[in-house]
Amino acid sequence: MMGADRHKLHEYADREALAEALAAGVGAVLAGGLATRGSAILAVSGGSTPRLFFETLARAEIDWQAVTVLLVDERWVPAGHERANATLVHRHLLQGPAAAARFEPYYTEGLGAPEGAARLSQLFGHLARPIDALVLGMGADGHTASFFPGADRLAEALDPATPRLFEAVEAPGAGEPRVTLTLPPIVEARFLALHIEGEEKRRVLAQAQAPGPWEALPVRAVLRSPRAHPIEIFWAP
């Protein structure tokens, strides 16, 4: 599968329709995992874009008690911090039926991000892989997860052969230090979605799908990864 064939674009008239469609797709994948294995794993991203999607998915009538929710990446800030992705997930996803899901926070008091990433790689080494459903966002700078242009350990995080599940990164555009899933567990997810909204991000996506170095637009590393199934791209104006 080469070039644009690796990507399947779903366009919607508005963000409400996108949220409904993405939630339906993710819910179906989780239900499939629950039916075949008795459990399922969902990995989600932060930022303002996924809030409506989270609130829609939270109403899905599935066995949330058997679902583990992970973060694709996290700012290395204490629990309850306003900028923590965990706070966003608690407020908008772990509500209603989805409140029964098992959520795995990443921050550990007393550890820096590099030590935290090493600990998380060991701690989650037992998790069933591949992840059932993983939803990425994308910034206007072409970052996804915490793969930021200019990040200090970007090459390590994007190494397709890395044995580490998590990497710590610092970058000019990242604000706080962060921990992120590395490239391998992201691209091996059964259902991998890229959720973007607005004309600016549509233009960035077009640039990322064109030839060029992945260092400039790190989302290219994800978009160019070989997969058995396309990356599902969800976009609304």
Please tell me about this protein's structure.
By secondary structure, this protein is an alpha/beta fold. It has one domain (21-236): Rossmann fold. The protein contains eight helices and ten strands. It has helices at residues 15-37, 51-57, 85-92, 113-123, 154-157, 183-187, 199-209, 219-223, and strands spanning 7-11, 40-44, 67-71, 73-75, 102-103, 133-136, 166-169, 178-181, 191-197, 231-236. A hairpin with an 8-residue loop joins strand 7 and strand 8 (178-181). The longest helix has 23 residues, at 15-37. The radius of gyration is 16 Å and the shape is globular. The two termini are 28 Å apart. The model has no long low-confidence stretch (mean pLDDT 95).
Output mean pLDDT: 95
Query: What is the element string, with H for helices and E for strands?
Result: EHEHEEHEHEHEEHEHHE
The description of the largest β-sheet is: 7 strands, parallel
Sheet-strand content, in percent, reads 15-25%
Gist of the model:
With 237 residues, this protein is an alpha/beta fold. Helices cover 31% and strands 19% of the residues. The model has no long low-confidence stretch (mean pLDDT 95).
What are the salient characteristics of this protein?
single chain; 237 residues; seven-stranded parallel β-sheet; 8 helices; 31% helix; 19% strand; globular; 6-phosphogluconolactonase; 6-phosphogluconolactonase activity; 6PGL; Glc/Gal-6P_isomerase; EC 3.1.1.31
